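S1.2 Input.
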Amino acid sequence: MPEYTLNALIIDDEPAAVKNLEMLLKSFQEIQSVKGFTDPVKGFNTAMTINPDILFLDLQMPGLSGIEMIKKIEELNLHIHIVIVTAFEDLVVRAGHYGVIDHLLKPVLIEDLRKSILKYKIHKKNHGDGGKDSHFKKQLKRVRIPTSFEDFFFNPDDIFFLEADGNYTNIITPNGEKITSSYHLGKIQCFLPEDIFFRVSRKVIINYNYLYKIDKRKKLCILSSYNKKAQIAYSRTIISATGLMS
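S1.3 Output.
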């Protein structure tokens, strides 16, 4: 039996996409119930009523778009974990980050869906019932990273990954910019929110919000931002301790 169960809601104006996602979700023991809507207004009203644990949300829909829904959910301070489902990865950036724990590309594959469920589990394990509020606050808190002559203050989502370079550390942003800190990676790790940043090898710390998949055959973490991808080699021993791999 799963440690706990969760309720899922799907809002997507494509009937085939809803049917596929419903079928995949029902294969997970953790999923207690699944409701799917192709009418975005009815789906949103239902989300307001039942407050699902996870909302799988398409972005481009007539009448009420996914982006508009996310903004309304934020304004109402509702505690819903959102997974964006879209055929257009470049649209994800418009949805913002707060409340969005992951995104899935259509057609949704069960391995990618498993990763989204895992992200939900980690949030739940780290924060319990108050996890969403705590997670939002940590995302909003800036991270101070010192360099030789300056201190940089990052929003967590401004950091793609961090890589050791001898006694220095390179901070890589989602747009590919590199900033070098005079602090070594272990020292910088002390500044980072531990529920967002995970050390996957001796040399690299990744931002969990950008983790797209874990390739177990090649031993790679695949990170994906809106215009950049990265393949990060991981240490099985180190990554197993993070809970990222089942």
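S1.4 Remarks. The two ends are 16 Å apart (CA to CA).
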